Hints:
Layout: H1 2-25, H2 33-40, H3 44-51, H4 54-73, H5 81-105, H6 113-130, H7 132-135, H8 140-153, H9 156-165, H10 170-186
Amino acid sequence: MSSRAAAAEATRERILDAASDAFFATSYADVTLRDVAAAADVALQTVVNHFGTKEALYGAAVERISDAIETRRYAVEPGDVEGAVAVLVDDYDRTGDFTVRMLAEEGRLAVVAPGLARGRRGHQAWVEHVFPAALAGLRGAARRRRIAQLVAVTDVYTWKLLRRDKGLSRDQTILAVRELVDGLHTSPRGGSR
């Protein structure tokens, strides 16, 4: 029985690999269960048996993608600003186009909302974890404002603007984001307004 379970799990993983690749490559609307089945080298019914619907498959793929992002980002020690920014830019180079595409579809496709909500919560938690010096001594509105600033300068749209729209290299993008983050470590600690 354990070999059957192992084979089923291997099949599920192949399907998730194929689905993740498909959702990364194109819009949600353009991905079909049939295409995922073909890429995973399984029957369409096998995909349906494992995941049921395209929405459920998407949710499972996004969970996998989100878990991988969190693993990479939390490998950085709190306070390692240079390492954090490098990991962030490398992560966006891997997942940023997918994320921007999902954000563009947010108002039209309810299926993307849970993944985006997890991403937003996760990004803020990571910012608070990895940049403690920028938050030291801040309370109330001043702390909330500083967190919002850190989230903004490390956001996927900031990466998109620098990397895609302005065509900066990886190293120049890292430097630009690092300078923005450094400014928040050294700027005056505002009041509670």
